[in-house]
Amino acid sequence: MVKVLKFLISITITILFLYFLNKYVGFENIKRFFNDLSIFNISIAFLFYLISYIIRSYRWSFTLDIKDFKKLFHITAINTFFNIILPFRTGEFSFFYMLKKENIHISDITMSFITTRAFDGIGLIAILLFSYFLYIGNILFAILSLILLPFSFYIFIFILSFIKHEKVKEFNNKRFNFLNLVIIYLLSILTFLFKFLAFYFVLPESLNINIIQSFIASSGGDLTTVLPIHGIAGIGSYETGYAGILITLLNIDKNLAFIASLFAHIFIILSSSIIAFISYLLKKL
């Protein structure tokens, strides 16, 4: 019953978003901006997005015993695709399923998953604060955001110290040394850097949104992905987070903000689908 209710809410969010998008922005207006797209810029955007996948895949090697990059890339591509398409974060089950087939112990899978997702959150907030402080001209706070935020992970390590499970303690001793954590954090930052660069290049130039504004908005859009309930494939909820940041924090015209969010989200869905499909074919071949 709860799952049905959540599904109905997802459909409602998507339908309401499309309705208000057409009412206040207009599909004809959106079509006009599509004509401004540059094939060259889209290609650059896809290249940056692919690099973000490569970095994210490499990052798993610091939390898992798997060192075969092709396997790690395939896991990343399929897991990301299902996370985008499926509601309520159910796409995360694909990560556990694929690693279980690699004979990785469930506790190692869980600890690896929690660690990387924690650094996803830390890295995302760091990029958001860094971009915002740069936007308002506070360079000192921007730098401090990048330097100090990763230390919040030690709160998680402190909580884990109370867990006496042998496998958890083994994972802590093996993975949670300072150098390893620094590398995971830096790779997380680089992942978002290339990902958000991709979103910037896919925007039509006539929208007049600069790179810092784009980074702030992209951070807001990505923050919505942690919500337990969102629209189908994130449609509606992602745009609300992305455009909401542009409208409330940066005073961008709401029509332009929602058009920008739509372009970024369409790019995410199409690019992640292409990467997952190619990865699937290569694995079969």
Automatic annotation (TrEMBL):
One of its GO terms (cellular component) is plasma membrane. The keyword Translocase does not apply. InterPro entries: L-PG_synthase/AglD (IPR022791). It is a multi-pass membrane protein. It comes from the Bacteria. Pfam families: LPG_synthase_TM. The chain crosses the membrane at residues 6-25, 37-55, 75-99, 111-133, 139-160, 181-203, 256-282. Keywords: Cell membrane, Membrane, Transmembrane, Transmembrane helix. It is found in: Cell membrane. This is Flippase-like domain-containing protein.
